[in-house]
């Protein structure tokens, strides 16, 4: 194959791959967070049947390779359920489940770290469990969980690099395309690596700012 070199369309291709990576990451983090919180609440409040089932599923998702999960969803689910699923849909579905499993662990740990005394005091004053969850547990647990959430977000951003294995034209897939065409692996993968690095740093810095604001708000509220 002849070395064709870089051309003016390559930055557009890079931007498209970047958009796909960020889009899959954002969708899976948002959906995964919502599902993860639901799993955590079911387990904390020991919902019969549901809690043990979610625990088994979460343990599988936490302790099996994400690449295997991608293959299972993309290749296995269509055969099992006789449905069509696109690479992007499989990627979002898989990373959402994986994210949810870790969000659940973080949420449970954060809730367990709270002072039980203030929860009992709130109950003694007649607050409902829903009110306690919304006004006391959720705000404080979020602050406690922020460092772990930031770390998870950065990790999941980098995990998106695996979705190219099922055909998603993400940032890593763009790198493969450019590398095959230009025969410039050092330049291509340096650019892809720096892009992930910059995204990770921006994400970590944004998360740190949010954490600081939450802590200041909690201090002001006296919680």
Automatic annotation (TrEMBL):
Key words, A-Z: Amino-acid transport, Cell membrane, Membrane, Transmembrane, Transmembrane helix, Transport
Ranges of residues in domain ABC transmembrane type-1: 18-207
Entry-linked InterPro entries: AA_ABC_transptr_permease_3TM, ArtM/GltK/GlnP/TcyL/YhdX-like, MetI-like, MetI-like_sf
Single GO MF descriptor: transmembrane transporter activity
NCBIfam families in alphabetical order: HEQRo_perm_3TM (TIGR01726)
Annotated Pfam families: BPD_transp_1 (PF00528)
Protein's GO biological process: amino acid transport
Membrane topology summary: Multi-pass membrane protein
GO cellular component: ATP-binding cassette (ABC) transporter complex
Designated name of the protein: Glutamine ABC transporter permease
Compartments, as annotated in UniProt: Cell inner membrane; Cell membrane
Superkingdom assignment: Bacteria
Entry similarity comment: Belongs to the binding-protein-dependent transport system permease family. HisMQ subfamily.
Keyword field contains Transport: yes
Transmembrane segments: 20-45, 66-85, 91-111, 132-154, 186-208
């Amino acid at each position: 194959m002849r070395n064709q070199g870089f051309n003016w369309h390559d930055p557009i291709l890079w931007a498209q791959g970047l958009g796909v990576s960020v889009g899959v990451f954002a969708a899976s983090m948002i959906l995964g967070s919502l599902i993860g919180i639901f799993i955590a609440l079911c387990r904390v409040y020991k919902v019969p049947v549901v809690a043990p089932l979610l625990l088994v599923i979460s343990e599988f998702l936490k302790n099996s390779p994400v690449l295997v999960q991608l293959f299972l969803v993309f290749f296995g689910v269509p055969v099992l359920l006789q449905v069509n699923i696109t690479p992007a849909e499989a990627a979002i579905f898989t990373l959402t489940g994986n994210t949810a499993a870790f969000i659940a662990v973080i949420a449970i740990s954060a809730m367990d770290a709270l002072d039980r005394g203030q929860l009992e005091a709130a109950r003694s004053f007649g607050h409902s469990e829903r009110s306690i969850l919304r006004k006391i547990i959720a705000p404080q647990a979020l602050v406690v969980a922020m460092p772990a959430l930031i770390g998870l977000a950065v990790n999941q951003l980098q995990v998106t690099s695996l979705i190219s294995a099922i055909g998603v034209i993400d940032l890593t897939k763009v790198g493969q395309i450019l590398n095959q065409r230009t025969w410039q692996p050092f330049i291509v993968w340096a650019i892809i690596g720096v892009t992930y690095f910059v995204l990770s740093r921006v994400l970590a810095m944004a998360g740190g700012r949010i954490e600081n604001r939450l802590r200041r708000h909690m201090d002001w509220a006296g919680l």
